[in-house]
Amino acid sequence: MTGRESELEYFGAALADRECRGFVVGGVAGVGKSRLAEECLERAAAAGFRVGRATANVAAGAVPLGAIAHLLPSGVDLTDPVAGFAAVARELASGPGRQWVLFVDDMHLLDAASAVLLRQLMDTGALLLIGTVRTGEPYGEAVAALRGGDAVYRVDLTALSPEQVEALLQVALGRPVARRTLHKLSAASGGNVLYLRELVLGAMAAGNLTEDGEIWDLVDDRLPGTARLTETIGARLAAAGTRGRPVLELLALCEPLPLADAEALAPPQVTAALEQAGLIRVDQDRRRTTVSLAHPLYGEVLRAWMPVLRRRALLLDQAARVQARGARRRGDLLLIASWRLAATGTADPALLAQAAVLARHAHDLPQTVALLEALPEKHRTPATDLRLGEALFELGQWDRAEATLARADALAVEEQDKLAVALVRTTNLLWSNAPVAEALAVNDATRDHLSSPADRRKLTINEGFLRIVGGQPVEGLALLDDLETDVGDAPDLNAWLRGAWMKPAALALLGRTAEATTWARRAHDAHRLVQKRALASHPAFQRVPLVLALTEAGLPAAEACREGEHAYAELTAAGSPVRIWLAVLLGRAHWLAGHPVTARRWWAEAATVSRSIDHAMALRLVLSGLAACAAVLGDLDAAETALAEHRALPPVEPGLLSAGEELLGEAWLLAAHGQLARARSVLTTAAAIARDSCHATSEALLLTDVARLGGAKEVTGRLTTLTLTCDGQLAPARTQLAAALAADDPELLLRAADACQAIGADLLAAEAATAAATAWRRAKRSRRAAAADRRADAARAHCEGARTPLLTTAQTTAALTAREHEIALLAAAGNTSKDIAQFLALSVRTVDNHLQHTYAKLGVTTRHELAQSIGVVE
Fold this sequence. Notes:
By secondary structure, the protein is mostly helical. The protein is built from 45 helices and 10 strands.
């Protein structure tokens, strides 16, 4: 019932209204009318009303009172309708209990006698009617009287929105659903609840819809549905009759179609009847009128039932119609080629090549591949193989792309062809987990074949792009230093877009977030303007560095996430796997904001995409993030599972963001187990890796976590230095927090909480305020401590249940020394004294002495009580 709560509240108001006589639910088939009405009836029964049910149908409608005969009191003579109806009203009113509430499903099919009787019973107050009616269905005057009037409440259900589909599936399946899967299910079902249910059941039964412990995802894009779904849609399509069937079949293969093409198969009155029956949709765009099937699943069923030769004939006839009109529209050549290819498995080679260009510019990558793979071997050129390799690359099919691009390189003779192939091939190598050196070697080898300085500069821009993606922001940025600031000034727009794609990412990693934001917006706007001429990735991918820049600038998380989620939706609809990096950065943005549940959701999304395209660089990073989120949420088994998969992955060279940050999960799992010294050691090592790679913002993130886990004094100096090179508000807020923790000064901690709150870093703000409360309490300033606690509680309310050492132990361990605190955390996590001694290089006796002091200060006697006292998961 997700998304229908407001309608149920509306029914509650109807029950309470003494003047109300009916509650009617309208809508098209499958939107949940009957389910909502059943919920209303259950609420009426729970409120003490007497309830009954009836279902109207065509057969019962042929018999007077046929639908409600089973509800009529026995012994009532209905030969005199006036006296009989009055007797029925008296009998119903005289029974025990409260008023009757009657649910009539498909009320529009009621016979006139039933409708008249029910109206009289409603008017006398003998019953309150709940009815469902199907939008667009004809009904008689008697039924119309039931549906109207001020005393009848009316709601009309519409199809579920994508957001409602997401909420419903999460409730039904118990876990989030991957965005690509949501997109497929929402589009295929059209928001129809019945269709959605059958698609999910069919995909699960076929093993296509699976979950990995974090998220549900389609193994492939197939949604087989169920036999019930096919039968339901088949019954609906039967309304077309034999005259309308050809129109539906042609639409199933070629929609949308000009209205004239539909009327070439059936007269206007037939297409009008199809529209009236809700089987087709007619759209008007200026002077162009087009026809489509009313629901995407109609096409699925029709295609499954269509004989091969019938399909072939329809496709070839439609291709001939468009060709006869001169194929004047921009997309006509693509349509003709696609239809001929689907009908016969081949088409004119020149037509296939032209159509592939159109498909590529429309970002229809699967169609681009299909058209180019249909080219006979003798008609393949460096240009066609380049386009095929590029499409395969963007679909994440790295090995096939490399084989195709290697063949294109072998066929290439002209310098321009060699250059074009190298630009795509080097990128494909980088994404396919190959070492950066391998991609750079291809780039250098191609440079040796070029004589034009302009062409050699394109490879210099490409080298800058490769080095930044490969985790070398300083070297890469130096190579892009002279990149034109305006695409209009660039000699080659595709080369410029490649450089403008990664330049802001390097700037953001180096802490130059203002420049990064400006460049990222400039690149995105330019790509939108030239996308019909550009061969670079979808323009939405330019938002990847924008999300990174906005996050590191310390702007409110909402802005970075709004930009990222909009772009992710675009790339999901386009089927582009490059969306993976948006999911990575959205997870990271929410992690920095202190929202571990949402961060976990996005990193789980990124993991599903990473596994589907075998992208180890991203997968190593997101598995670490998943482990970190699970650890701070207390789900230690899930954290261990994520890290086990992480350790099993083949090693890859550090890349974008993976310089150091991929150790985040290991550190936070150690912290969750109470091993703070080891966690700090891991984070310090990770920060050194980031520093060596000049990933200033990654280093700052990792050092901040060292401070949060008890090492503030050791890292404040370095964070202060980083603040001098990193602009924006995030770096100063981090440094302010570390300095306040190091000083253990409650006033400074509250100022740090303000700074963190201002940038939307809710968890850091909660930790700072909690530490301030602890400091005030230790100073015997109870009123100030209580005020700081309230500040902490307000911030913690936004942290989605996060549990960090600063949050869970600060109050209860205020009287403990730093060593006692650390030993208490380890003991509370289930470690023996011997284990703790080994972790901390102490004697067992020293550990036990510290524990005894801790027990005395906290008023506990066992390790179990200790764990409960300081809120640590055992």
